[in-house]
Amino acid sequence: MPALVKLRARTSYVDEVYQSLLGAISEGRLAPGERITQEDIAEQLSVSRSPVLQALGLLKKDGLVQDAPGRGLQVAPLDATWTCKIYEVRGALDALAAKLAAARGFKVDPQLIANGRKAAKSGDVKAMIDADIDFHRAIYDAADNPLLSDTVRLHWVHLRRVMGAALQSAAQRSTIWDEHEAIANALEKGNGDEAARLAELHIQNARAGVIKRMGWQLPD
């Protein structure tokens, strides 16, 4: 079954090809280690090779694809050390965002949580990633610190990928929105310290879930 969906006609496709490939990698439709070719991608997306070449160059720069043995490219494997470092950064940033948002009396839109629970029940990884991103982005926006938002944006492609890895696990899906709701409750009460603690714990749980799912053995 094709991993990609044809794109609509337009003048420049580079960003759309990039986003399509990023989505396929994040959602597991293009698996770590899977070989990818310009020709196959261009055919699946119904575009020329030029934007595919440029998009692959961007993905390679971001560390999401790499040279394959022999020739060609492949989806980069999820590296245990790198993934854990991403979670370290995200835990600190999410905790700070939650604390700032609580200080501003932010109340999470209940529809965000409802959408997330619905996505989790559907098993649609893309919908789950999008719902997760919407929840956390709302908190970052409420924190009202552009430096914080800009910092997390630098790592967003990697954050999206590790989100996808975590959400492949049914066990992770069953608890994630309970954790989100607990964070939302702390925010609504204006309890910044508790919101920050729960936000960081949420990321630690996600990290542990990915480590377990991938079967990684990490040093103590």
In short, what is this structure?
This protein has ten helices and three strands; from the N terminus they run αβααββααααααα. It has helices at 14-26, 38-45, 49-61, 80-103, 110-122, 125-143, 146-154, 156-167, 170-188, 192-214; strands spanning 35-36, 65-67, 73-75. It starts with 13 loop residues before the first helix and ends in a 6-residue tail after the last helix.
Write the layout of secondary structure elements.
Layout: H1 14-26, E1 35-36, H2 38-45, H3 49-61, E2 65-67, E3 73-75, H4 80-103, H5 110-122, H6 125-143, H7 146-154, H8 156-167, H9 170-188, H10 192-214
Antiparallel strand pairs: 1-3, 2-3
Helix pairs in contact: 1-3, 1-8, 2-3, 4-6, 4-9, 4-10, 5-6, 5-9, 6-8, 8-10, 9-10
Helical content class: 55-70%
- The DSSP helix count reads 10
Q: Give me the secondary-structure category.
A: mainly alpha
Radius of gyration: 18 Å
Strand order of the largest sheet: 1-3-2
Order of helices and strands: HEHHEEHHHHHHH
CATH class of the largest domain: Mainly Alpha
At the fold tier of CATH, the topology name of the largest domain is Four Helix Bundle (Hemerythrin (Met), subunit A)
User: How many strands, which pairing sense, and closed or not: the largest β-sheet?
Assistant: 3 strands, antiparallel
